[in-house]
Amino acid sequence: MNTGLLLYIPYRHLENRVMDAIRAAGFDVTLAQARLLQRLDPDGSRLTELAEAAQVTKQTAGFLVDQLEKAGYVERVPDPTDGRARLVRGTDKARAAAPFAEAEITRIEAEWEQHVGRRRLTQLRDTLTKLCEITDPYR
Hints:
Order of helices and strands: HHHHEEHH
Domain HTH marR-type: 1-133
Shape: globular
Radius of gyration: 17 Å
Strand order of the largest sheet: 1-2
Structural class: mainly alpha
CATH architecture: Orthogonal Bundle
Strand content: 5-15%
CATH superfamily: Winged helix-like DNA-binding domain superfamily/Winged helix DNA-binding domain
Low-confidence stretches: none
CATH topology: Arc Repressor Mutant, subunit A
Number of domains: 1
Largest sheet: 2 strands, antiparallel
Distance between the termini: 28 Å
InterPro entries: HTH_MarR-typ, MarR/SlyA-like, Tscrpt_reg_MarR-type_CS, WH-like_DNA-bd_sf, WH_DNA-bd_sf
Pfam families: MarR_2 (PF12802)
Keywords: DNA-binding, Transcription, Transcription regulation
Number of helices: 6
Number of strands: 2
Organism: Prauserella oleivorans
């Protein structure tokens, strides 16, 4: 199995469990919407930046933002640096979902630590953090 797939399988497991926890807490979002919400800058993001960060087309990002806005998870606000532009910003409703996601991630990481040991999990995190230096253009 290649390294990319070895990275993806645990991530997919984590993502599915986080989505289950969020939905169980009463937040009705799709996986595509959640992936877009993850990429929102706390101060707001331009639609083009959001599409690029989420690796979707501008049209797809616009469609997802429309859905999220209608459901009350985001709002469009004027960009203070450019009067013609708008920013997409998360609402209190979106921020209210974060503790449920974070709690599930904490549980998962505790399970992983129990399975592989603290030293190995720390080494994995350190290695992945180092790899992000050359693989994450949005750092």
